[in-house]
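note to self: dont lose this again. the chain is below, predicted strucutre after it. 392 aa total, dont forget to put it in the shared folder this time
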Amino acid sequence: MAAKHDVDWVTEQRAGYRIHQSGDHVSGTYMRVYVPDTATKPGNPLKSIVYLHGFALCIPDFYEEHMLQLVKEGYIIFFPDFQPSFYRTVLPSASPQTREDEDIEHWKRWYSIATGKKVTQQEEQALSVNELLSLDQKEWPQAEEMKWGPGLEQPMASDVRRVAWVLLLLIGFFKLLGFIRQEYSKNIIHLLSTVGISLFQYPTCWLANAVKLTENAWKELTLDYPHWATTELSTFAFGHSIGGLIALSVPSKVTCDSDPRVVPQKIVVADPAPSTLMGIPGFAIWLLRRLHSPFTQKPIEITSTGEAIKVPVAILHGGSDKLVTPQQWVLGTPSNYDAISNSVDKAIYFSYSNPPGLIAFHNQAVTSTQFYGDGLMREFGGVSREVQISLR
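---
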């Protein structure tokens, strides 16, 4: 009798590979795994990549073209959404996601959360996923009790209230800005509202969640592919922006009890942020700090996690990156790059723009930014329509 999975998985077969998906974005349990057909059969060596997304780019749509190129090269791709969000959880076969809510709906959501009885009268209560969703004015279908991701904590009601008021202030500010820059305003409101629930969590919990989700996925899918337990495996971590920082920080979470299948033998990152405090606009960080948001309380910083890296590292950085400038990695004594002090082999490469095709901006690793529109993405790392990183 076959062993039973601990979570429900959806599986879809495509030409040359399979997609396995489980969990939900809102609870921080979402995982998608791409398995090439060669990895489903015994006798072939295995190679895997843990693919870690940038801030707010929590759905596979942003990176899928790049991930599919890697699948065609024989890599098993693990895409954990370590950052809870209000993105819709859809089947792999669904069309690319599009924005639906109007600005007023985002304001209503966060006003409802900020003024809900659970956060105003029971501030020291830790909230479950279902309790948090019950504060939202939007109806959420909940067939059963949902659990937070394995590396996340239950947020305190007081933290939820404070973050909700910050988001209301930001939504109001950007709504006013919309009289001047309508497309940018509309999209930044949607982005911040969508990932607002992740600001109740410490970034160190995001890191733990990325590791735990991947460990659990290996365990679960080995039930479907028993030969994975005994086959030689090469493991890599790849990350973009804040996901790049998390990839670089995975070794700092490794213990003697860690599953070796999630411990990267090599790390490659694209335009990584040296700190999670660089994830959102500076004045938003200032507000969140003033109100003691967990997001600003325990940041991940390469100056703290870099010394744990002992494997080869390659940093790919755009010379035209304005969101995380190249100077942030190489200036200073010691520099952020110097913080990776124990790697057996490390290198940092800077790419340059070759118009019109190759633009060395922050989003070189992103293969589609259409979800949020060009007006926002020009300011949020760059507009991308193709797999630039593989062309470099």
